[in-house]
Amino acid sequence: MDSSFSSIVPAPQDPILTVYFASRDDLSPVKLNLSGGSYRSEEGKPLVLQAVRRAEQQLANDMSRDKEYLPLDGLAEFNKLSAKLILGDDSSAMKENRVVTIQCLSGTGSLRIGAEFLAKHNQERVIFVSNPTWGNHPNIFSLAGFSVEYYRYYDPKTRGLDFKGMLEDLGAAPSGAIVVLQACAHNPTGVDPTLKQWEQIRQVVRSKSLLPFFDNAYQGFASGDLELDAQAVRMFVNDGGECLIAQSFAKNMGLYGERIGALTIVCTSEDVVRKVKSQLLLVVRPMYLSPPIHGASIVTTILKNSDMYNDWTVELKGMANRIFSMRKQLNEALQARGTPGDWSHIIKQIGMFSFTGLNEKQVRFIAKEYHIYMNYDGRVSIAGLSSKTVSQLADAIHAAVTRMA
Amino acid sequence: MAAMAMTIRNSASRRTMTSGPISGLRSMSSWWKNVEPAPKDPILGVTEAFLADPSPEKVNVGVGAYRDDNGKPVVLECVREAERRIAGTSFMEYLPMGGSVKMVDETLKLAYGNNSEFIKDKRIAAVQSLSGTGACRLFADFQKRFRPGSEIYIPVPTWSNHHNIWRDAQVPQKTYHYYHPETKGLDFSGLMDDVKNAPEGSFFLLHACAHNPTGVDPTEEQWREISQLFKAKNHFAFFDMAYQGFASGDPKRDAKSIRIFLEDGHHIGISQSYAKNMGLYGQRVGCLSVLCEDEKQAVTVKSQLQQLARPMYSNPPLHGAQIVSTILGDPQLKGLWLKEVKTMADRIIGMRTTLRESLEKLGSPLSWEHVTKQIGMFCYSGLTPEQVDRLTSEYHIYMTRNGRISMAGVTTGNVGYLANAIHEVTKSS
């Protein structure tokens, strides 16, 4: 019988996957994969946090637990604790009941639910994302019916923030447009605005009536301090205006595969919150009915137990510190080799990734000659480096920069 | 209240604002002024009302989740054991976009057969999905993207969320006759007429077994006729199989409709769910599969399904998939699961018999044959909305107003009370 789908062509391969497959098929014993977005320990292994293991055991031993459907908006306790984590224990917005939080499938799911809701209820159908941004941002929003525009963000000359360009582009955006802002540890560049710069960004956003949509995927992972990493978001919430926040526990709790996150919408009143929440649930039900329970249970167990919470913050700081240390070591290694160029951006950038400034030719060269894999835009996962492999990467960068323009 | 909130917020902003001009006025009014409250979900509304009812006699036969004979939710032994094995061992890394390969492989065997040639020939494009809902939604999105002019034919009645799913995927819907209120069985001739009259190459949603909400399934012979007619019309069959194993107690038997279509050469799509048959409701684990012409096309279609999943949730959740592959990958655990599924199905079948017999013993003037003829979790009782309302207000019995009774909520403890109440509201019919 004829297929209904015989004219379908294969989907384009995701570039990150291309790199992953190349690294997977490389048989060299010294190969190093720095293209992924998962944290690795000093031994180069994935890390499950102790706090998570404890929570897991507690849950597995609790015979009173069942596997019933969660409500459409997920685990209530999880929602409350997640909101507190990003908004602060003393959040006035929460005290005034102006916050709706629903459990979603990690950051991606939170963004998608938010996007679908906005597509139904926002007047403007244009969304601004940073240039560059996480590859999935444009997909998510265009699938929800938005046209995606870019605001200047990364300055290749300084390998830092193009602050002037950013303010100009946001200032020129149409009123009512939505702006995606990464709360901290920008992916892929590692370049974050300073708090002073955030304040100016906030002023432009509010004065132009742009709606901020925060992608908060690395809270605690950037500086090592959960409160510090939340400052940008709180600055916006504290001015009394509205915003959306997509939260993920994939990285900061190492719960990648469990798909646990939350979408928070801060509104001007309790009455608005009720209506917004009911409309959010209408988006969820025909997508997957209700969110998965396991990740939410682990997060809740940790956040509500002060011992586990403290242990977690210590481990989180440990991960962030290891990344700082790797940045320092890499920068020093390049300086020691006299590698041409200014490599200070490696220690100025923050979070899991560094935009090295290498071009595609250099990236391919490094893959071929040094068996080190990074994204074609020059993004490396610093979280994938260890003290043992820093010199290998430094050698590779040095060779690429001196031998290939 | 709103005014007070405004005042609090005003003073809060004045306190925390740093220097510099801020447009205070614009940020005061809400972006969401024009958002209307959403209509309440009928099924969830029933459970809410049940929970709020203080009566000690209350009975919930509304929601479609299995309960044991004490009315308690059940976690299967095989699931507990699987969890014990998983805890402490997993790395929790991202699954691939298409989900757990192991889980998908085992799941395909259940639907297509352990020795399916289609599996051997790698002709099935399959991805892990967010239970049955997620599988239906992915397929609907896929249908919209690659068959943009097509519509979906949905049975009347069906699970209400089916309408929401294809609507949100922006695929226009048509309906086909299914339930026959007079016989409380299948409107077979109506169904066949609608299949015949649909334009060639139409897309149909079929419930593989244990139809939700009616419990009415075609017989094997009827399935064969439906399949033949589908062949003549070149229609596409999409099966929602949410209750495999749960209907008759035998997963192979429950997949019969699918096997018939496969034998007849149809290239079908299937949504599979472990919510009910493994009791993994909240874990959201299932599978979407599309049978293709050949391996090359299967790879192509799978890549496109993954493209649709990525902007929805990137990759599917790990834990539920681990439970499924742990169980199905271990012959002992799998044997235990099959026993436990049969136990659940048997308990429901037993309750159907008891309910029917109780009503007949009470001398009901109506026929309750359909209670034992229908299959799966639900019974379409034939009660009118008014009768349902009476059951709720006078007897604290909760069900959806279409008269659907969740047999999984019936126990030896409440079946007598339920029968009596039903008799009372129907005896003058």
Provide a compact summary of the structure:
The complex is a heterodimer of chains A (405) and B (429). Chain A is 47% helix and 14% strand.
Topology:
The complex is a heterodimer of chains A (405) and B (429).
Chain A: H1 15-25, E1 32-33, H2 50-61, H3 76-87, H4 92-95, E2 99-104, H5 106-121, E3 126-131, H6 136-143, E4 147-152, E5 154-155, E6 160-161, H7 163-171, E7 178-182, H8 195-207, E8 211-216, H9 226-229, H10 231-238, E9 243-248, E10 261-266, H11 270-288, H12 293-304, H13 306-337, H14 345-348, E11 353-355, H15 360-370, E12 372-373, E13 379-381, H16 390-403
Parallel strand pairs in A: 1-12, 3-4, 3-7, 7-8, 8-9
Antiparallel strand pairs in A: 2-10, 5-6, 9-10, 11-13
Helix pairs in contact in A: 2-12, 2-13, 3-12, 5-6, 5-11, 7-8, 8-10, 12-13, 13-16, 15-16
Chain B: H1 2-16, H2 24-28, H3 42-52, E1 59-60, H4 77-86, H5 101-112, H6 117-120, E2 124-129, H7 131-146, E3 152-156, H8 160-168, E4 173-177, E5 179-180, E6 185-186, H9 188-197, E7 203-207, H10 220-233, E8 236-241, H11 251-254, H12 256-263, E9 269-273, E10 286-291, H13 295-313, H14 318-328, H15 331-361, H16 369-373, E11 378-380, H17 385-395, E12 397-398, E13 404-406, H18 415-426
Parallel strand pairs in B: 1-12, 3-4, 3-7, 7-8, 8-9
Antiparallel strand pairs in B: 2-10, 5-6, 9-10, 11-13
Helix pairs in contact in B: 4-14, 4-15, 5-14, 7-8, 7-13, 9-10, 10-12, 15-18, 17-18
